[in-house]
């Protein structure tokens, strides 16, 4: 069974940084893409960033230039470095693996205070 466990969320002031990590219980090399999504209170889940098996990233316009996604196929992890955080970045962040099926973690809360 595929399990994804996120870590690294917390409370940070605007302008600060956090690094999220997602540990996957199986080899991530088989997944076409991995990514981070987020869901703010009262809003739908939205894409933050994805990275392909080959390492090509894709970002939501709202985080371009501030967030960096990376994957480590040897360690079966995907990370999200978040810099220059804004209050609008406050959300639960979810890790996702895309293969034949979609797999999701339970999420980690990021709170950015103004």
Helix content: under 10%
Q: Compute the average pLDDT.
A: 96
Residues in β-strands, percent = over 45%
Major pleated sheet = 7 strands, mixed
Identify the overall geometry.
Answer: globular
| Rg result | 13 Å
The strand count comes to: 11
Distance between the termini: 40 Å
SSE pattern: EEEEEEEEEEE
Q: Count of helical segments?
A: 0
Low-confidence stretches: none
Structural class: mainly beta
Features:
single chain, 114 residues, mainly beta, 11 strands, 54% strand, globular
What does this structure look like?
The structure is a single chain. The chain is 0% helix and 54% strand. The protein contains no helices and eleven strands. It has strands at residues 4-7, 10-13, 18-24, 33-39, 46-52, 57-59, 67-72, 77-82, 91-98, 102-104, 108-113. The strands form two sheets. Strands 2, 4, 5, 6, 9, 10 and 11 form a seven-stranded mixed sheet that branches. Strands 1-3-8-7 form a four-stranded antiparallel sheet, with no helix packed on it. A hairpin with a 4-residue loop joins β7 and β8.
Mind sketching the topology for me?
Blueprint (H helix, E strand, L loop, with lengths): L3 E4 L2 E4 L4 E7 L8 E7 L6 E7 L4 E3 L7 E6 L4 E6 L8 E8 L3 E3 L3 E6 L1
Parallel strand pairs: 2-11
Antiparallel strand pairs: 1-3, 3-8, 4-5, 4-9, 5-6, 7-8, 9-10, 9-11
């Amino acid at each position: 069974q595929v399990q994804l466990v996120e870590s690294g969320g917390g409370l940070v002031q605007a302008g600060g940084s956090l690094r999220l990590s997602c540990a996957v219980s199986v080899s991530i090399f088989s997944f076409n893409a991995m990514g981070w999504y987020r869901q703010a209170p009262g809003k739908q889940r939205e894409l933050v960033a994805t990275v392909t098996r080959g390492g090509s990233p894709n970002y939501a316009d709202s985080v371009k230039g501030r967030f960096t996604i990376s994957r480590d196929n040897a360690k079966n992890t995907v990370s999200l470095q978040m810099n220059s955080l804004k209050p609008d970045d406050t959300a639960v962040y979810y890790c996702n693996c895309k293969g034949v099926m979609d797999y999701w973690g339970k999420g980690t809360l990021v709170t950015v205070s103004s």
